[in-house]
Amino acid sequence: MQKVITYVKTSDLTLDIDNPRFGELYTGSSNEDDLIEYLLFNESAASLVERLGSTKEFYIDKPLLAFNDGKKIIVKDGNRRCAAVKALKNPGKYGITTTAYTFEKLPAVIYKDKAEIEARIIEEHTNSMFREWDRIAKAIEVFRQFKSGSSIESMEEIDSKPTDLIKLASFYYEAVKIGGDDLKKLLRKGRGGTGGKTTIFERLFKYSSLCGYRFKNKPDYIIEITDSKKFKNYIKKVVGYLIKHPSTTYRDVDEKTEDFFQEIGLSGQSTPIQTTSPTVAGNTSQLGTATTTAVTATPVVVPKHQNKTQAKPQYNRTIPGPLKKIIDECYDLNNLTFTNSKIAMSRIVFECCLKYVVEETKYNNVLLKDYSYFNGVFPNGAAQSAPWTNFKKLKELFQELVKNKGKKQAFKKFDLETPHQIIHNYNIGGLVKDSKTLCDNLIPLVEFMLETEANFLASIDTQKL
Fold first, then answer.
1. Which contacts (CB < 8 Å, 24+ apart) does range 355-364 have?
2. CA 105, 107, 113: angle at the middle one, nearest 5?
């Protein structure tokens, strides 16, 4: 039966506290104000408040999808927009400076059959609804579909590697039993760049056998706890460390592997640990803001001679398909067979990633490209715009924002002249070693640029903008 758009009083709309996008990671109360604040600052709804306050228009072609359970009208699709509207009525209450505005009614399509609305949401948004979801939220949704019988192939529209997300979600459900709200806060984005640590836990999956767990093979993929005491100790140590060192990123873990395990108190033997766990001694200690039970440390030894060769960048930001295709195309090219092409593509990848992150990242609800700092760089940017994107100037300005001295130097020394000559001068041929060196040196730069938005902003000097 065809549904029609109706206008519902904003006050009659209830936000969905069990929404699969954020329900698992939400740690507040059932109070609507707490949920609104969560959506504003953990699900990027704050940026919508400013837009809605400016346009004073809630587009009818994007109605909310809501479920009437007989007692209340629950928003199933459009919670961020609905929360932004509710916050706009009194923005100061949530620390937002936008001028207040009231939407008395919002367009919505109301369903009374829960299965029908869930099918409708998937049907309408399969190709796009997950694009902006955090990786952990996406994993939880994929896991939900997997457990309900959906095929791996059907979930590839959500992510190209749904089995990795199944592993992540199953790990999350076991780890959250131990880390609780502290773990949830580390995984979601949050304010101040203290969250978004999902990738750190994923990077440590390769040491699963040393930490009391493993992942089952096809067709299950889910986690199996092989040593509960060791796993419990591992989760508590990592969570505790990340709470004390909130600026830690997956790159820090990659760069110091064994040292990282030593820092969190899970290393100390010169031979691999056994699968059996030593006696556990319990006492009560404080872990961040939550009271937990300490466990005697089980040493974890990371092999000292790990093969650190990396074939292509591994990043945590959700990027558009065309940009991903460019990166993959560059790193799929053979050094020997397509030497010139790979060298030329290295510059294209660098410039596309740089342009994307500056054009699509917001600081204080303003795109980086629109700050006067980037004057003269973009054709449609701030004042004194250029007739085309000035990549030379963009690179010079961007690298000065990078806080880490080593990373800043890496940006400065990344060679754009060699690929420039390969692209524009047919008399010059590239060397195989140039091809490999350029692409190897490009990997950490791409990973830096395509970090989660919160972690990326924390790694640049925003005071210069």
1. 355/389, 355/391, 355/394, 356/319, 356/320, 356/323, 356/449, 357/317, 357/449, 357/450, 357/456, 358/394, 358/398, 361/453, 361/456, 361/457, 362/47, 362/453, 363/457, 363/462, 363/465
2. 115
Q: Residue ranges per domain, the chain?
A: 6-125, 154-295, 321-464
Greatest pairwise CA separation for the chain in angstroms = 75
Tokens of 442: 């490009």
* Fold of domain 6-125: 3.90.1530
* SS3 call for 23: coil
- Distance from C-alpha of 90 to C-alpha of 98, rounded to nearest angstrom: 9
Helical ranges in 149-197 per DSSP H: 162-187
Among the listed residues 195, 243, 239, the one whose alpha carbon sits nearest the alpha carbon of residue 43: 195
Bridge partner residues of 65 (DSSP):
77, 109
- Strands of the sheet containing 105-111, edge to edge, are 6-9, 105-111, 64-68, 73-77, 13-15
Strands 73-77 and 64-68, bridge-based pairing: antiparallel
Angle of helix 162-187 relative to helix 135-147, nearest 10 degrees, comes to 130
Distance CA 83, CA 16 (A): 10
Positive/negative CA dihedral, 216, 222, 226, 231: positive
pLDDT at 305 over 70: no
The predicted pLDDT at position 156 comes to: 73
* C-alpha span between 142 and 169 (Å, rounded): 8
What DSSP state is assigned to residue 307? -
| Lowest model confidence (mean pLDDT) among 147-151, 170-174, 440-444 | 147-151
Look at 140-149, 268-277, 423-432 and tell me which has the smallest mean pLDDT.
268-277
- Taking the C-alpha atoms of residue 166 and residue 286, their distance in angstroms, rounded to an integer, is 31
Q: Over range 58-79, report the average pLDDT.
A: 89
The CA distance from 17 to 12, in Å, is 15
Mean pLDDT of 149-156: 78
How far is the C-alpha of 70 from the C-alpha of 14, rounded, in Å? 13
Please give the C-alpha separations between residue 426 and each of 171, 233, 419, 429, in angstroms, as whole numbers. 52, 59, 12, 7
Backbone angles phi, psi at 58, to 5 degrees: -105, 110
Q: How far is CA 404 from the centre of its chain?
A: 21
When computed from its CA atoms, the radius of gyration of the chain, rounded to whole angstroms, is 24
